[in-house]
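Provenance

Sequences were taken from public entries as deposited. Structures were produced by running a predictor on each sequence independently, with no templates supplied. The record for Enoyl-(Acyl carrier protein) reductase from Pseudoxanthomonas wuyuanensis is shown for reference.
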Amino acid sequence: MSGGILHPESLVLGASGTVGFGVVGALLEAGSPVLALGRDGPRMQALAQHFAEEPALSLMTSGCIQDDRDAAALVATLRKRKRPLRAVFASLGSAPESGRLLDRPSRLLSDKLERDLIPHLAAARHLLPLLAESNETAHYILIGGPHAERGWAGYGHASVAASALRMLAQVLHEEAQALGVRVQMLSVDHPISTPANACNACAEWPSALAVGRCAVSLLSCHEAPKPIVRYNAARAQPPLSTLFSDYTPASAHG
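Predicted structure for Enoyl-(Acyl carrier protein) reductase:
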């Protein structure tokens, strides 16, 4: 597409996860080119196979962001792509481990924050300035899970980390205003319904695609942005128009 027009891209961090998979699907459904970042393995291979007929999907399997070094390397790679970046969706986190806080060594909480909170901060520190270079309103959307407001019995480490991520989203929302980037968290207050848990899932549990659609809907929301937006099934419907119906893409360089 050298010398032509490149639609801006949406970056999905944690694309190999359940919610990340849904965000990728929702973005493609809405007409957005997608760069999916995830750890190389069976889940990324499944993502590639599922969307094999989607030319707008690019995969990056160099690993996940863990610290500032990883985030800086990602930004360097993005700059080489020379495709405008419109949005980042961050669905990062590790599997919860059971056990009472009082029964486990304090180091376990430190490790949980290191895995679930620090990567979000590292990614935001390096990607927000890149998004700020856009000529249009850019979005940085974090996906937050349940139990951030009330403790999850037997999974206290996960609740503390989720609550800390929620506060991080609010701080980033305030600080990113000076950059002209909208930072918001989509708070999903129920577990995700998957084929693996379908027999035990409650009716109010959303699918990964529904969560993805709700997250993507924030890109075209014209209301004053709130730092925390709760998942709403009304926002999880298939899109009525593409993301670029009212967006003038930048010209490609080179």
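Residues 185 and 228 are 5 Å apart (CA to CA).
The first strand starts at residue 9 and ends at 13.
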